Amino acid sequence: MIDARVVDDGNLVTAGGVTSGIDLALWMITHECGASLATRVESVMEYEQHRATPSHASHAPVSSC
Asked: Which is deepest, 16, 46, 55, 65, by most CB within 10 Å?
């Protein structure tokens, strides 16, 4: 069992619960648009993301949002 809020298993990313869902949304923003945008969203939401664990895959942003 992995004790993490968001789990990135390479081909599958999953989360459970409300705040885990927020963490997953921020993970998706990070991996699709970059860490800079995710950090700005965290700031606006006044929320500190719990980083995904473990990260087996290295994902570069797909596009600049």
From this structure: 55
* Structure tokens belonging to residue 53: 């664990």
Tokens of 15: 């989360």
State residue 20's pLDDT score. 86
Residue 33 in contact with residue 64, Cβ under 8 Å?
Answer: yes
Q: Which residues pair with 2 in a beta bridge?
A: none
In contact, 34 and 65? CB cutoff 8 Å: yes
- Reduce the DSSP state of residue 52 to 3 states and report it: coil
3-state secondary structure (DSSP) of residue 14: strand
Q: What is the DSSP letter of 55?
A: B
Q: pLDDT of 28-62, one tens digit each? A: 999 899 999 999 999 999 988 877 665 555 555 56
